[in-house]
Write a structure and sequence with these properties.
By secondary structure, the chain is α+β, with helices and mostly antiparallel strands. 47% of the residues lie in helices and 14% in strands. Residues 1-29 form the signal peptide.
Length: 257
């Protein structure tokens, strides 16, 4: 591979990560106090990743691009070119094209207040636990411009695009005394009230969100499993080489000492 081209690709991805981190710091700024749930790790499960890819394409890619990933990279999770064409390419793109969107950035900014960030590296920027909790803590809020709010990201500008799957829920809050100032009260989250059922049961919805988050984690770095395997091999090699070098050193110097 051309060295200059490789460095350009690395620099481009690095700049994307920095810019996405900045956007998420503003567009996805969370309250920071809500406890995060642990996201299941399904990076080794191709069936889960394929389901996550389907959810991403059908519910997320209308507004969020993934410009560091090409459709043909989905072969790595067990899909054929024909399956990618039939199930995951909704426009006129080709299998070798980047996962871009047709939404105009100016229109997106007008609709949501900010341009929706590219999702190529969002899992690395925010973390899978944040994403897993975020997608599962939407609730109806009549005071919000979109009619929705989120416990992880208060006053979220993004509507709940998965509401048909999860159903409509209301958040129950209770006024409690502020631990730092007893004279003040704060709102404490107590639970959800299901207003209308979704197409999925709660456990089924959580399971599908785990698949989506796992796919987003894979999408952020498709080679991460290979990188980790190579890392283990390298560490084992270095450990064995160190032992051999230590023994050779003792053998070389034994007569002198």
């Amino acid at each position: 591979m051309n060295y200059r081209l490789t460095m350009v690709c690395i620099l481009k991805k690095g700049l994307t990560l920095v810019s996405t981190s900045f956007l998420l710091g503003t567009a996805f700024a969370a309250g920071g106090d809500f406890p995060l749930d642990s996201a299941p790790d399904r990076l080794n499960n191709n069936a889960s990743l394929q389901n996550g890819a389907k959810i991403f394409v059908n519910y997320c890619s209308g507004c969020h691009s993934a410009v560091n990933l090409r459709y043909n990279r989905l072969r790595d999770i067990g899909l054929t070119d024909q399956q990618i064409k039939d199930n995951l390419i909704l426009g006129d793109q080709k299998v070798g094209d980047l996962m871009t969107i047709s939404t105009n950035p100016k229109d997106a900014k007008a609709w949501f207040g900010k341009v929706p960030p590219d999702m190529s590296v969002v899992a690395r920027s925010r973390g899978t636990d944040w994403l897993y909790t975020y997608f599962r803590t939407y609730y109806k809020d009549p005071d919000s411009p979109t009619g929705w709010n989120n416990l992880v990201y208060p006053n979220v500008g993004m509507p709940h695009v998965l509401w048909q799957l999860q159903g409509e829920r209301a958040a129950i809050f209770e006024n409690v005394k502020d631990a730092k100032d007893p004279g003040k009260t704060t709102k404490a989250f107590k639970g959800f009230e299901q207003l209308s059922p979704g197409l999925m049961k709660p456990q089924e919805y959580d399971d599908n969100i785990a698949d989506l988050v796992s796919f987003m984690s894979w999408m952020a770095e498709p080679t991460q499993l290979q990188r980790k395997r190579i890392g283990v091999v390298v560490l084992l090699f270095l450990a064995i080489f160190t032992l051999i070098a230590w023994r050779l050193n003792k053998a070389y110097w034994k007569d002198i000492r």
